[in-house]
């Protein structure tokens, strides 16, 4: 069976001839959380945006469940099973919780009664706050809403860009607990994070990106005490060294 997501020597960026992602290769299996770590400017967010079809790819391929989607428009990737939750502007602040979910369902051709009851059961806080505007939700509740919107069409792969940004440790724990549940249902999750400790605690595997390419990839539990993380984050190791695997 093909991996849920395969990224092959991907190059991508915002300006022609100036790639930020410089040949990254990663693989994520169904029912696995891959944490994508790295120092600021490493290209983590650019990589997931390129996979989502939001940043131009100049070389390499993206395979979703074995199918090449590199040239597929972003809006069609969602229908194929690839969901993406950006760090900001991931909900409509002036709409209620219910309106956010109903609009997402309508845009994706899903009848609300077919999917929303299950999402409300999954996220009880959203059920209790159906009539509240999203802009008045707590940070954690807003992230839950953004994730719920991404689950309207059950995805094969869910990518999240910095879901813990601005959240308290308690709320980070709640959001990451929801990701574990989604992972256990067979969804592959790519988690871009600056909170290294929390990311490694929730992930099955992790990859450290430096200057647009993976440098260390391995089981999250083993990477928690690996001195290479500090070396790569603090720049004490040459970024021209070959990628390592544990």
Key terms:
single chain; 10 helices; Rossmann fold; four-stranded antiparallel beta sheet; globular; alpha/beta; seven-stranded mixed beta sheet; 246 residues
Question: How would you sum up this structure in a few lines?
Answer:
Helix content is 37%, strand content 24%. It is α/β, with parallel strands linked by helices.
Describe this protein's structure.
With 246 residues, the chain is an alpha/beta fold. The chain folds into 2 domains: 1-81 and 158-246, Rossmann fold (3-Layer(aba) Sandwich); 89-153, no CATH class. 37% of the residues lie in helices and 24% in strands. The chain has 10 helices and 11 strands. The strands form 2 sheets. The protein has a 7-stranded mixed β-sheet, with helices on both faces. It has a 4-stranded antiparallel β-sheet with strand order 2-1-4-5, covered by helices on one side. A hairpin with an 8-residue loop joins strand 1 (5-12) and strand 2. The longest helix has 16 residues, at 169-184. The chain starts with a strand and ends with a strand.
- State the CATH class of the largest domain: Alpha Beta
Strand order of the largest sheet: 6-7-8-3-9-10-11
Overall pLDDT confidence: 92
Query: How many separate helices?
Result: 10
The rounded distance between the terminal residues' Cα atoms is 24 Å
Which CATH architecture of the largest domain? 3-Layer(aba) Sandwich
Strand content: 15-25%
* Main sheet specs: 7 strands, mixed
Query: Could you estimate the helical fraction of the residues in percent?
Result: 25-40%
């Amino acid at each position: 069976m093909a991996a849920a997501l395969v990224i092959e020597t991907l190059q991508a960026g915002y300006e022609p001839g100036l790639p930020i992602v410089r040949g990254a290769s990663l693989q994520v299996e169904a029912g696995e959380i891959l944490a994508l770590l790295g120092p600021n400017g490493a290209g983590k967010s650019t990589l997931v945006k390129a996979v989502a079809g939001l940043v131009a790819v100049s070389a390499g391929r993206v395979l979703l469940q074995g199918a090449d989607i590199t040239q597929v428009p972003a809006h069609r990737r969602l229908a194929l099973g690839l969901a993406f939750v950006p760090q900001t502007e991931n909900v409509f602040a002036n709409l209620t919780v219910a309106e956010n979910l109903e609009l997402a369902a309508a845009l994706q051709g899903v009848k609300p009664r077919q999917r929303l009851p299950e999402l409300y059961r999954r996220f009880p806080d959203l059920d209790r706050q159906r009539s509240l505007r999203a802009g008045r939700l707590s940070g954690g509740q807003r992230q839950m809403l953004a994730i719920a919107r991404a689950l309207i069409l059950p995805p094969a792969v869910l990518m999240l860009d910095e879901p813990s940004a601005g959240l308290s440790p308690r709320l980070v724990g709640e959001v990451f607990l929801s990701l574990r549940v989604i992972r256990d249902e067979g969804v592959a999750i790519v988690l871009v994070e600056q909170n290294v400790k929390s990311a490694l605690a929730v992930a099955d595997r992790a990859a450290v990106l430096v200057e647009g390419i993976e440098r260390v990839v391995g089981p999250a539990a083993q990477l928690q005490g690996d001195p290479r993380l500090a070396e790569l984050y603090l720049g004490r190791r040459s970024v021209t060294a070959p990628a390592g695997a544990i």
